[in-house]
């Protein structure tokens, strides 16, 4: 059956980061790796050419250390790569769940669901460009601050790793601001879609599990970005800060997941309440006749009692067991940078101890 025509008012467009993936010949993972290699590779190349700072420093005792700015460049490259890849991964998810989302809605919501999965509303193009420009200006402001505080002159800044920050910081800041706007836009649009068009059939609640999958993806994106940002404080010497950051990250992931499934949860509860009210009204009509010995009324009342129990036991959250299990694992993601940092430090101590 052909798809319904999209409402012209809901025409969508593809942002530039998604166009990058569509036109890349390397596929999703190849393109993602290429983005990181270009970003961090250019950082290391500038360090190597300018030696301000060098990629690594050798102490008098022969030990090797890395300037902190190299770690910052690595983390910023990870953030840039994650921002671009998560945006494309989100588009791939919408394509994968489009048909399931349509089945979870009333017929009146099909056009809206297909438009939602098709991309960003054209009406948002100006806002997206505006927010990207605002972020890019903030990135340039960061560079101006670094020139005044550290370099002193633009020429000196450009002859150091500052050149990399001047090129990448505006792009990174712009994408970061726009990513936040995109998350808010998607969340608002999905809530409107669920509120206006969700079809709650208590016999087929499994059709609503798609909303749990959508919430899981949103939480995963949040937790992955939080894990990358935690690399800034991923050091055993900063364990207190790290633990507080982990707690905030997990709480944020849980809130994102809860926000995505809560509207459906409320509608399921309302549907159960309405159905129970209908049952109780019918039971009240049969009660007197059943107590008076009417066999048919007693049989009908027993059937309604069984149906009442079945309705009460229907789940109120649009979550499949697999989604619940995966979310329980995902909330551990922000812990990984701290564990990795601790293991790296222990391994480094062992290696340095063995070579000294």
| Class from helix and strand fractions | mainly alpha
Q: Main β-sheet: number of strands, strand sense, barrel status?
A: 2 strands, antiparallel
Helix content: over 70%
Mean pLDDT: 86
Determine the number of helices (DSSP H or I, runs of at least 4 residues).
Answer: 12
The tally of strands reads 4
Strand content: under 5%
Cα shape:
elongated
User: Could you list the spans in which at least 5 consecutive residues all have pLDDT below 50?
Assistant: 1-6
What's the Cα radius of gyration? 27 Å
Could you give the order of the helices and strands?
A: EHHEEHHEHHHHHHHH
Give the strand order, joined by hyphens, for the main sheet. Answer: 1-4
Report the span from N to C terminus.
72 Å
Outline the structure in words.
There is one protein chain. The chain is an all-alpha fold and 356 residues long. It is built from 12 helices and 4 strands; from the N terminus they run βααββααβαααααααα. The strands form 2 sheets. The chain has a two-stranded antiparallel sheet. A hairpin with a 5-residue loop joins strand 2 and strand 3. The protein is elongated, with a radius of gyration of 27 Å. The N terminus is likely disordered.
């Amino acid at each position: 059956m052909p798809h319904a025509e999209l409402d012209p008012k809901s025409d969508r467009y593809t942002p530039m980061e998604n166009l990058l993936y569509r036109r890349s010949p390397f596929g999703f993972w190849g393109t993602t790796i290429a983005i990181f290699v270009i970003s961090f590779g250019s950082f290391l190349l500038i360090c190597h050419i300018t030696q301000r700072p060098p990629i690594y420093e050798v102490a008098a005792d022969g030990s090797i250390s890395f300037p902190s700015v190299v770690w910052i460049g690595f983390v910023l490259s990870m953030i840039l790569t994650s921002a671009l890849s998560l945006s494309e991964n989100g588009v791939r998810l919408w394509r994968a769940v489009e048909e399931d989302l349509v089945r979870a809605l009333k017929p009146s919501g099909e056009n809206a669901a297909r438009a939602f999965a098709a991309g960003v509303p054209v009406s948002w193009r100006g806002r997206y460009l505006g927010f990207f420009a605002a972020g890019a200006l903030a990135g340039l402001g960061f560079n101006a601050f670094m020139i005044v505080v550290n370099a002193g002159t633009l020429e000196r800044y450009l002859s150091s790793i500052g050149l990399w920050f001047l090129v990448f910081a505006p792009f990174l800041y712009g994408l970061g601001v726009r990513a936040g706007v995109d998350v808010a836009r998607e969340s608002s649009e999905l809530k409107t879609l669920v509120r206006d068009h969700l079809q709650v059939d208590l016999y087929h609640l499994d059709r609503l599990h798609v909303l749990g999958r959508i919430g899981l993806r949103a939480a995963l994106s949040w937790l992955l970005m939080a894990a990358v940002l935690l690399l800034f404080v991923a050091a055993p010497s900063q364990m207190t800060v790290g633990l507080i950051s982990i707690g905030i990250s997990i709480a944020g992931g849980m809130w994102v997941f809860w926000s995505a499934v809560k509207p459906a949860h409320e509608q399921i509860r309302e549907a159960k309440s309405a159905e129970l009210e209908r049952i109780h009204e019918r039971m009240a009509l049969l009660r007197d006749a059943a107590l008076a010995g009417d066999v048919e009324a007693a049989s009908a009342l027993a059937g309604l009692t069984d149906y009442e129990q079945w309705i009460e036991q229907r789940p109120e959250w649009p979550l499949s067991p697999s989604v619940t299990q995966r979310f329980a694992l995902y909330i551990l993601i922000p812990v990984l940078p701290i564990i990795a940092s601790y293991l790296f430090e222990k391994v480094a101590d062992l290696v340095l101890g063995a070579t000294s």
